[in-house]
Specification:
The complex is a heterodimer of chains A (269) and B (471). The longest helix of chain A is centred in the C-terminal third of the chain and has 22 residues. In chain A, strands 3-2-1-4-5-7-6-8 form an eight-stranded mixed beta sheet, sandwiched between helices. By secondary structure, chain A is α/β, with parallel strands linked by helices. Chain A contains ten helices and eight strands. The relative contact order of chain A is 0.13. Chain A has one domain: Rossmann fold. Helices cover 36% and strands 21% of the residues of chain B. Chain B is built from 14 helices and 14 strands. In chain B, the strands form three sheets. Chain B has a seven-stranded mixed beta sheet with strand order 5-4-3-6-2-1-7. In chain B, strands 9-10-13-11-12 form a five-stranded mixed beta sheet, with helices on both faces. In chain B, strands 8-14 form a two-stranded antiparallel sheet. Chain B starts with a helix and ends with a helix. Classes of the chains: A alpha/beta (269), B alpha+beta (471). At the A-B interface, helix 5, helix 6 and helix 8 of A face helix 11 of B.
Chain lengths: 269, 471
């Protein structure tokens, strides 16, 4: 799988960080009691990572392009992966949400209300202790002057009035998207589970386009202290607020990599 | 105690008016009428411990400034009327009533006061067989006059006790309310309110209607029972979740949630088959939506608003979802735990209990919509001569089953969609080029390219240009 990592090094690093964080879920439940729900695409890279890294046996991949079904069945690395064909919103209800889940809604588009509905459904349906992650395009591909209008068009009144074009440069639109995602998860989780959603991830990365990955854990009154015991905060890439962790993967030579490896374990740099 | 007669009269009047206001302020018209009907139905059921209600009837009629409810449910004995049904406060020597009678109490007087300013009650009660303790009474009250008098009692217009009611005479109660309050008069003319009453009565008393009770609402034709039911078969299983929601300060609310689809209406075989496909867009939503009951009182009727998840997170209502039905039953011993407003006529949307239930309704709605969407997609790509896929067979042919017969299922279960047939790759669009060049120059290029034919030289030179300048 090393080749894909070279293709998209930041994405690969992010995946590893998320798997690392999920390892701490053992305080809540044995990891093999979790299921993974994602959009595996043709390569199922995240599925391989979550299976190898965490030993998660039960996995579901949702694919919207119904013409690819035979290729997906051919490419899926584990026979046990259940492939659901169709739009996420129609397929998500087929997942057994009574099992704790790590769900990664890995979109390539910018945030829309449809994506928020998928998020709403997953947060509502998942049992406390479940992880929910959303990746969206950082919405910085439009000309600076039209970015805010574009967000308003996609998200309507979810965009506050206090924003202006000057906050739309660089990661500005991604910050707005993160706020909307967190606000949605916050209120849905309060409705469904009685406690707000606890954000853990707020990654900015750009292998190509600027991308945002936001996510966290569903809690409940009973589970709050157990989640404290997972000590997610100890991981230096965990972000519980508006400030993002920006992934910058340096391009290193073989010699440099070999040198760095001799310096571990411990903090590098 | 006030001693002067004139003072007493005024005090009593003020006190009574205040009392009536307090009694009626927390009830809406529909629940008041439903209370009266409940009394009649309870009476009928009390007469037939075997549950067979054939021959029992209840008639509700209104219009022209009157509201009447008549039944043959056995009547009220003069004794119970005197000591309990029309007495305020409980008589000291009245030690207890059977449960069904117990519901008369406040409910009946409150309902009457809610509807109008004057009422008449006639009742014939047969009593124990052969005991000769039948009774009849007639009560006629003008509430304004009553309020002005000192005594808190009603006077019988006439009363007969210790009589035998002849077998050919129906034993029952007739209540006629006149001098209707203007707002009640208006409400009873409002088709939407009458419809809501009809829906509530059909659902609420479906069991009694099916057991033979004839319940008439302004019509010679009795109401038909509306029995909550959903499509179920060995291929389809609707959502049925049962759970408890804790009250904010202790206690629990028991919740039963059912969601699924109703069988498509039977079509007339002679109807033009062409109409079939178009019907979807024109059919009215009918009973599509959520029905929510709190302690058996119907609070939401066919709700398709954001309150029950339509539009967020589920898709907004669209005719393709007209087969959706959801039934939610909340019950609690302590009625104050239930998420209703103070008049018990609408949902208190801010209640944490409701929000927890609402969340379950939302996910159930999304789940059912997903099945409907899946079936719609399969149907849209179905070819004429193709065998009907399982999911369509399931949803077109499964019968409605009463929800009481369903077994638990956290999700709606229905057959998967068959994989779509792979599309033939699109034929590439082709542009032919033809041109003439100098023969010597062609030979030079052909040698340089190692090509042997004109067409090969043509393709290679084109590719070369494309690679260098375009790609």
């Amino acid at each position: 799988m090393a080749r894909q990592y070279e293709f998209r090094p930041a994405k690969a690093a992010q995946r590893r960080m998320i798997v690392d964080a999920c390892r701490r879920l053992t305080a809540i439940s044995a990891l093999d009691q979790y299921q993974y729900v994602g959009f595996g695409g043709l390569e199922f890279i995240d599925f391989i990572e979550f299976h190898r890294g965490l030993g998660i046996p039960r996995m579901t991949s949702i694919e919207r392009d119904t013409n690819m079904q035979h290729r997906l069945e051919f490419n899926k690395p584990y026979k046990g992966i259940r492939v659901l064909m169709g739009e996420a919103r129609d397929q998500l209800p087929q997942v057994d949400w009574t099992i704790p889940a790590i769900t990664w809604l890995d979109y390539t588009d910018m945030l829309t209300k449809d994506i928020l509905r998928d998020l709403d459904y997953v947060v509502r349906s998942s049992v406390p202790g479940s992880i929910v992650i959303v990746t969206v395009n950082g919405a910085a591909t439009f000309p600076l002057s039209s970015r805010l209008d574009n967000l308003r068009e996609k998200l309507g009144d979810l965009i506050g009035d206090d924003l202006d074009a000057s906050s739309m440069n660089g990661w500005g639109p991604a910050q707005v998207e993160r706020n909307v995602l967190q606000a949605t998860a916050h209120s849905v989780s309060r409705d469904a589970h009685g406690r707000p959603f606890r954000q853990l991830f707020n990654f900015h990365y750009a292998d190509d386009a600027k991308m945002l990955t936001w996510g966290g854990i569903i809690t409940s009154t009973n589970l709050d202290r157990t989640i404290d015991a997972c000590r997610f905060d100890d991981l230096d890439f965990v972000r519980t607020g508006g400030e993002a962790f920006e992934i910058n993967v340096p391009v290193l030579t073989e010699r440099e990599i070999a040198y760095l490896e001799t310096q571990g374990p411990g903090k590098v740099g | 105690m006030v001693t002067q007669t004139s003072d007493t009269t005024v005090d009593a009047g003020a006190e009574k008016r205040f009392f009536i206001e307090m009694l009626t302020k927390d009830i809406e018209l529909l629940p008041a009428i439903v209370d009266l009907v409940d009394n009649s139905v309870d009476g009928a059921r009390g007469l037939h411990p075997d549950g067979n209600l054939a021959g029992q009837w209840v008639r509700i009629e209104f219009g022209d400034g009157t509201f009447t409810i008549t039944d043959n449910s056995g009547g009220i004995s003069a004794d119970i009327a005197r000591h309990y049904a029309f007495r305020f406060g409980r008589s000291r020597d009245f030690t207890g009533v059977k449960r069904s009678v117990g519901q008369f109490g406040v409910g009946m007087k409150r309902a009457i006061f809610k509807i109008g300013q004057a009422f008449e009650v006639r009742s014939a009660h047969r009593g124990e067989t052969g005991a000769n303790d039948g009774s009849r009474f007639h009560l006629n009250v003008d509430v304004e006059q009553w309020a002005a008098q000192e005594a808190w009692t009603f006077q019988f217009e006439s009363v007969d006790e210790g009589v035998t009611i002849p077998a050919e005479e129906e034993a029952g109660t007739a209540i006629a309310v006149t001098k209707l309050h203007p707002s009640v008069e208006d409400d009873l003319k409002d088709p939407a309110i009458v419809q809501a009453l009809r829906t509530e009565l059909r659902l609420r008393h479906q069991e009694s209607i099916q057991s033979g009770l004839q319940l008439h609402l302004n019509s010679e034709n009795p109401l038909t029972a509306s029995r909550p039911s959903l499509q179920a078969s060995d291929m389809v299983r609707p959502v049925f979740r049962e759970f408890q929601v804790p009250g904010p300060a202790g206690g629990t609310v028991d919740v039963k949630l059912f969601a699924g689809t109703a069988a498509p209406p039977k079509r007339d075989k002679d109807a033009d088959p062409e109409d079939d496909g178009q019907a979807e867009n024109f059919q009215d939503p009918g009973d599509a939506g959520w029905f929510l009951f709190c302690n058996d009182r119907l609070l939401l009727v066919a709700d398709r608003s954001p309150l029950t998840g339509w539009g967020n997170p589920a898709a907004a209502y669209h005719p393709q979802y007209r087969s959706f039905r959801g039934f939610v039953y909340l019950s609690a011993d302590d009625a104050s735990l239930l998420p209703w407003n103070t008049t018990k006529t609408a949902v208190d949307r801010d209640s944490p209990v409701f929000r927890a239930v609402q969340s379950e309704m939302k996910t159930a709605l999304v789940a059912v919509q997903a099945v409907i969407n899946r079936a719609k997609q399969v149907r849209s790509r179905l070819e004429d001569d193709e065998k009907k896929p399982e999911i369509l067979v399931a949803l077109d042919e499964a019968q409605d089953q009463p929800i009481t017969s369903l077994s638990a299922s956290t999700q709606m279960i229905a057959p998967a969609a068959p994989p779509p047939k792979p599309k033939a790759p699109p034929t590439p669009k082709i542009q032919r080029i033809q041109y003439s060049v100098d023969k010597d120059r062609f030979d030079e290029v052909a040698i340089a390219l190692g090509a042997t034919s004109g067409s090969e030289v043509g393709r290679l030179t084109f590719d070369y240009f494309y690679d260098q300048e375009i790609d």
